[in-house]
């Protein structure tokens, strides 16, 4: 299954802004996508380069080549992917003074993990497009094309079989952000990625909180008609109240926020959190909106 970004083709504005304070940009693709398809991340890179003359954009390729990169979205352990990204970022000479970052879908929570685990060089602004920051509970709407729906059906069946069994937890990326609110205790113990970066384990990692709070801005874009992410509120850090799967509460009513496990409350009070929404399905936005609301405000 491919979850590609969908940009409405409006190539109106193209102001070039050059300044020696412009920071480079790191982008991370979503599931089924790659660093470099010309119609998705390649296109985002081009649009940003055209709009911000002279900017350096690094689109992360995981696993060393395009084929592995696409597979990585399903089958390379999230923790290894984050480690790979940290290595790339810390060894890229053009990023050493710091950078901004944009994650698409699951690339959003991966980049947040980079901010929390790898503070050098510093990430300044993080923009999340349809990220699943509290994980997902459900795997809806597989596409109709048989070619694409095979992987999708496979992933769905495996998740339903047992997301927290060790084999599946270690081997399937989507299981690593599977968050079952009916079994919150099992999730906290067995989930190897999202429960870890959200500091939901019994032992809290102080550096996760300190590092995330170094961000100047954390921007979360929610797609109001998202048919892929359940619950949609996860894109703004909200989630089901523990013990049931009907009532969803906003970020500020979760325990994670109230006890400030990763610094979200402090960041909120400091005005560093930005909640944006788009009236569209998963990763569907238009170019003008992207340039005006995201690039002009949080990239240049
Ligand atoms: C570029 O940076 C230097 C300081 O490093 C500053 O003096 C100069 O005004 C800057 N130029 C522009 C165009 O921002
Ligand atoms: C906290 O996270 C950092 C970065 O991943 C890791 O090096 C460190 O061992 C962790 N500390 C604890 C107490 O888990
Ligand atoms: C939580 O945030 C919402 C806005 O998203 C706000 O209306 C509400 O008052 C906040 N609740 C608390 C308990 O701060």
TrEMBL record:
The keyword Disulfide bond applies. The lineage of its organism: Eukaryota, Metazoa, Ecdysozoa, Arthropoda, Crustacea. One of its GO terms (molecular function) is palmitoyl-(protein) hydrolase activity. GO terms for biological process: receptor-mediated endocytosis. InterPro entries: AB_hydrolase_fold, Palm_thioest. Keywords: Disulfide bond, Glycoprotein, Hydrolase, Signal. Its EC number is 3.1.2.22. The keyword Cell membrane does not apply. This is Palmitoyl-protein thioesterase 1. One of its GO terms (cellular component) is lysosome.
